[in-house]
Amino acid sequence: MGQELRPAGQCRRVPRPGVLVRRHHRLQVGQPRQRLPAAPVRWRDGGLGGRLRPAAARRRRHLPLFRGGLVRGRLPEDHLPSQPDPGHPPHDLFDPGRLRLGHEQSLRRREQAPPGGAGAAVLRLIALVLLAALAGCLPPARPGPPDEVPLLRLAPSALPGGMAAQQRLSFEHGGRRQVVDALVEVDAEAVRVVIHAQGQVALRLDWDGSTLTQTRADWLPPQLSAERVLSDLQLVYWPVDAVDAALPPAWHFSGPEQSRKLMHSDEIVAHVQRVSEQRRVLRQNRHRYMLQIDSVPVIP
Question: Residues annotated as region Disordered (predicted)?
């Protein structure tokens, strides 16, 4: 052919007039600028590739089923909002172009859950845990011996001038401390107390001097009783003379306003301290708990 051809392994450059095509370790000569059809590539059965290809093929057989479960059809035209929602703040929660997860539900939506939905259930669960821990700070309500601490039932009118306050109640017992909030209103006709935790009403009581009515949440532990709440409240705020007159024999309540003591014979059963105008501290020695009351007056 005019030129001597040598195997490609013995030369560094391929002659331009011809085209050398390697096919299965052979050299073939083609016409200049003519592309020869390539022989089909034959895969070797052995090696790592031979072991991985069947596994990949088996996985690909499941891909159409998985894809069909993800995409059922075309999304509706209103899936992406075109106009902001006038009933919500003009930020990115309902702006056009935000992806929705479902009907009228934005991916970044922060709308508050309805009272009967999951949000309320979570709040009730948090309040239940908090009140359960609070119940652990109080001793069990059990019928005690005759020398058990008496529960007060003083008339609402026995508190001169009444009171209306928002209070924070801090209980300490056995090294644990729990806090709940309360609204207290006392006038000549009734004592009204509402205790709530995490925005959930736990206990509501009304004492008119003869009948004590209460409304309890179904998740409220039984140790937190309206009777004990009313008695501690009157022990802290009602006048010394009124409390002492209501006690059974062998019980006495005395002391100045800054430090009042409930005595049974020579035993200090309870101690009430007035730390400041807003703070009172009650220590129930027999029950071994401490109640700190931080009170802020409110206008009824």
Answer: 72-98
pLDDT digits (tens, 9 = 90+) for 43-81: 555 566 666 667 666 666 655 544 444 444 554 555 445
**Tokens standing for 35?**
């592309």
Query: Distances from the Cα of 241 to the Cαs of 47, 81, 156, 247, 252, in angstroms?
Result: 99, 70, 14, 10, 10
For the domain made up of 152-297, the CATH class stated in words is mainly beta
Strand partners for 289: 284
Domain ranges of the chain: 152-297
Q: For residue 281, give both structure tokens.
A: 């501290």
Residue type, 119: G
Phi, psi of 49 (to 5 degrees): -60, -40
Q: State the maximum Cα–Cα separation within the chain, in Å, rounded to a whole number.
A: 138
Environment class of 59 (CB within 10 Å of its CB; exposed 0-12, middle 13-18, buried 19+): exposed
Residues ≥6 apart with Cβ < 8 Å to 217: 124, 127, 200, 201, 202, 203
User: For residue 180, what are the β-bridge partners?
Assistant: 169
Q: What is the pTM of this model?
A: 0.53
What is the model's pLDDT at position 224?
A: 78
Q: Among residues 82, 181, 87, 174, which one has the least CA distance to residue 133?
A: 174
Residue 167 has a CB neighbour count (10 Å cut-off) of 21
